[in-house]
């Protein structure tokens, strides 16, 4: 007999390296209709040391990456335990964690998220559902995006859902009622790096970008990148930035403000070009980029036929963590949580690993 209500913790760490997002949420299902109550949300910022470790992880050998994986699992466990204790959470059915993506190369058949070791369940003393991407890649999928199942089940009143995190991704139902979703372009992985050069973690409301000047040659080179001409399913990882965008920046040395202005223009143009929906479609916008008012204004300029809706800040900040909580619940219920129409896998499936305090269950 399946439960109709679950009290779970959802955890997400994005490529923008802002920190670890945690939510305590009640998920309920009645007559196959899901609803949620987002009880508590919190972001635990990464220290400068951890941001440096995660940024440099791509260059580690297997031994170094394994060591980092264990260190990060311990760090993540301490964050989860503190979240439970500080908020006096007495009822936690299980913990659902994305981990942190280090390598994402579905074209080569692999994706790596650290923090998904069985040790996590032992340290937090709760059942853990995690490692949601690997199975999809093994089934020939992109392993991303995974959030669209939550868009369908929890946010069906919107024509589409747009997330502006480390990367922008969009999700919507096509004419055949298949969910379509894909990564559009890098967002905060680009913007935050330039903000860091100005001594900021990010560019609040895009004020620094607004003072910069768009570099037209760089903008044209960015817009000409091969990825944007590909058809879905498709996804992006930090490797894309290193191999495709960083070489362009070397050709066009600019001050951080000008890079920010150019990136904002590029992001707005690619999102507008990548979303093909009927006029007046209502689009939910979440992720840290939703607070970037300058970016949102440029997006409204290039995609003026759509209605962009920025919801309650709790949903903006924690929608992805909320949906990974849902993915964990669906996995425990042995129900589909990954859509082949989105990732390109061989079939819909229930992805993830369940760790009890003793043994994993696949």
Could you characterize the architecture of this molecule?
A hairpin with a 5-residue loop joins strand 8 (167-173) and strand 9 (179-186). The mean pLDDT is 95. The chain contains 13 helices and 13 strands. It has 362 residues and is α/β, with parallel strands linked by helices. It starts with a strand and ends with a strand. Helix 6 (188-197) packs antiparallel against helix 10 and helix 8 (216-223) packs parallel to helix 10 (256-274). 39% of the residues lie in helices and 24% in strands. The longest helix is centred in the N-terminal third of the chain and has 25 residues, at 62-86. Strands 1, 2, 3, 4, 5, 6, 12 and 13 form an eight-stranded mixed β-sheet that branches. A five-stranded mixed β-sheet has the order 9-8-7-10-11.
Over all CA atoms, what is the radius of gyration? 20 Å
Shape: globular
Major beta-sheet overview: 8 strands, mixed
Number of helices: 13
**Strand segment tally:** 13
Segments where pLDDT lies below 50 for 5+ residues? Answer: none
Mean pLDDT: 95
**Hey, roughly how much beta strand do the residues contain?**
15-25%
Helix content: 25-40%
Structural class: alpha/beta
**In angstroms, what separates the terminal alpha carbons?**
20 Å
SSE order, as H and E? EEEHHEEHEHHEEEHHHHHEHEHHEE
Q: What is the fold's blueprint, element by element?
A:
Layout: E1 5-13, E2 19-30, E3 33-45, H1 48-56, H2 62-86, E4 94-105, E5 110-114, H3 119-124, E6 128-130, H4 134-138, H5 148-154, E7 160-164, E8 167-173, E9 179-186, H6 188-197, H7 207-211, H8 216-223, H9 238-251, H10 256-274, E10 282-286, H11 293-302, E11 307-309, H12 313-332, H13 340-343, E12 353-355, E13 360-361
Parallel strand pairs: 1-4, 4-6, 7-10, 10-11
Antiparallel strand pairs: 1-2, 2-3, 4-5, 6-12, 7-8, 8-9, 12-13
């Amino acid at each position: 007999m399946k439960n109709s209500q679950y009290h779970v913790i959802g955890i997400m760490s994005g490529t923008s390296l802002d920190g670890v997002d945690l939510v305590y949420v009640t998920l309920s299902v009645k007559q196959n209709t899901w609803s949620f109550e987002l009880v508590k949300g919190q972001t635990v910022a990464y220290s400068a040391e951890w941001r440096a470790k995660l940024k440099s992880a791509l260059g580690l050998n297997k031994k170094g990456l394994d060591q980092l994986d264990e260190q990060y699992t311990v760090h993540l466990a301490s964050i989860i335990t503190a979240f439970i204790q500080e908020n006096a959470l007495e009822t936690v059915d299980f913990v659902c964690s994305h981990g942190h993506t280090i390598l994402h190369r579905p074209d080569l058949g692999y994706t790596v998220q650290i923090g998904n070791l069985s040790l996590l369940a032992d340290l937090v003393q709760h059942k853990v559902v995690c490692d949601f991407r690997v199975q999809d890649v093994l089934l020939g999928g992109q392993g991303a995006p995974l959030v669209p199942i939550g868009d369908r089940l929890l946010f069906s009143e919107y024509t589409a859902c747009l997330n502006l995190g480390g990367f922008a991704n969009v999700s919507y139902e096509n004419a055949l009622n298949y969910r379509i979703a894909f990564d559009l372009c890098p967002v905060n992985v680009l913007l935050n790096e330039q903000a860091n050069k100005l001594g900021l973690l990010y560019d609040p409301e895009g004020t620094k970008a607004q003072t910069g000047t768009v570099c037209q040659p760089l903008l044209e080179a960015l817009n000409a990148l091969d990825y944007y001409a590909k058809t879905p399913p498709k996804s992006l990882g930090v490797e894309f930035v290193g191999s495709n965008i960083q070489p362009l920046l070397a050709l066009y040395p600019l001050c951080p403000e000008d890079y920010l202005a150019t990136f904002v223009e590029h992001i707005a143009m690619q999102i507008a070009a990548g979303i093909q929906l009927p006029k007046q479609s209502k689009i939910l916008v979440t992720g840290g980029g939703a607070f970037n008012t300058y970016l949102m204004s440029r997006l409204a300029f290039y995609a003026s036929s759509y209605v962009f809706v920025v919801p309650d800040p709790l949903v903006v900040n924690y929608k992805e963590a909320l949906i990974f909580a849902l993915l964990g619940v669906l996995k425990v219920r042995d129900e589909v949580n990954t859509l082949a129409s989105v990732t390109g896998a061989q079939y819909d499936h229930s992805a993830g690993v369940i760790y009890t305090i003793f043994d994993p269950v696949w």
